[in-house]
Amino acid sequence: MMTIDLALQSDIYLNYLAIVGGVLGFAGMVLGVMTIFGKDVSSIWRTYRGWLIMIPLVMGTIFLGRTAVIVGVALLAIFGFKEFARATGLYDDWWLTGLVYLGIIALAVASFVTDPRLGYPGWYGLFMSLPAYVAGAILLIPILRNRAKGQLQQVALAVVGFIYFGWMFSHLGFLANTKYAYGYILYLVLAVEINDIAAFTCGKLFGKRKLRENISPNKTIEGSIGAICVSLIIPWLLWFSFPHFEPWHLVLTGLIVGVGGQLGDLVISYIKRDIGIKDMGAVIEGHGGILDRVDSMIFVVPIFFHVVRWVHGIR
Amino acid sequence: MTEWEYHPAPDIDETMAEHLRNFPRQPYMFMYALRSMAALLLRGWMRLYHRLRIDGREHLPASGSFILVCNHTSHLDTLCMLCAMPLNKIHRTFPAAAADYFFSSLPRSAVSAILINALPFDRQVNGAESLTVCSHLLNTEGNVLIIFPEGTRTTTGEMQRFRSGIGRLVVATRLPVVPCYLDGGLKAWPKGKLWPRPYRLHLRIGAPVSYEQLDESSESVRKICHDLQSRVAELGEIAQ
What we know:
Chain A contains eleven helices and no strands.
């Protein structure tokens, strides 16, 4: 469980605050020194400024507790889906777009309320069955408006939008109900970002062979392997986040982030490439849209969730 | 298998500030919802606080595009005219608002674009270009433009001369014009005051006028401006 008081008492939260603050401060200093020595770092500054806004927002939301996290994840899912809808043209269809929004709100409600039969916070059964209800409702919309032309495409986009950007991502909000919520959520956010940066850096340093040249020509096999290696080390350094994990759990956790993070990135890449756009939006200066930032989380979160649930339970 | 066609929104790589400032704006569900709620609250506030009375609502054309003109004494003018429009038309009613004032900062742009649905009108540099934007907007059947031909708020209560822009717009679009007069605006919210005072407001809507028979000469433009000004003034006399 998460509350403001628990955050203040939680060594895990305070440790992460120190880590993130330290990294941010160090990066700022490095950039400052580079600027003094006359290097052109203007584009990195823009990205850095984006982090300066995003990190306090994320840490602040987690500090505020369970409700804030569930609401925050739902908002990210809603605005992330909105970017997808605007990019694909599904947004012109306000019925379907509105229905997916409602579905995402329902996911947040399911994450928030108490399970009526078991009495635990978070109605797991409803959360897991919502895709059936929402996908079913989406499929009924063309019948309601008595229209067939182009409906398969619209319905398919809405279902993918709900399942991928809504349901899969919203597992992050449900994690706020667990005993180790701080450790799980903070680890996932930090490890996925490190994995992203590692893939980029290793690719720049050692990259030779293309990973998937028709999807994302800048990604390389070397970068990908480097990122997996880094991600396999991270859980050992952050073991305090989940002290109940055994060593093989750490290996599994590292693999989920290392592989899942890159898969999420590739999924958004082929979606963008198929549509023919560069970024999903321009909300975050220097980072593109919301989906360009959280893309790697989307695959990692549900897999991590269900593996943890299988091994330890999610209470 | 046939390939799907995607139609990405044209403003996909714009930032939030650009979304708000650029025109025409893409339709946003959140914006519509907020604007509809704001319109309801505004109607309540106008009725209770200013005891707004609207006469001549039946003169508003039920369909097609048209132009609303009004005397300009305060910011309440725009709000009253928005209250006169049916709720289902507020998303297609665009008050022309001075870009140098209403779109000068991000919070102001947000209020102007989301709540008022304002069209940013550049009255200083690109008056002609802004008029082109207006006539493009009016080409879409059902769009309504609210314009204050005096160009700025009066400080004395005396109606100022109508600028030629309205005449040029009318000869270019050949659309009907609905003259209006708002009484009480100057007393309720004079220029320079931060907050409106609870004085009575009375909006009078006149019968629509069509100038289709006039040509595009500058003589016609003058005639239209003059005619509209006297019609608005006439409504003012009745209202008082």
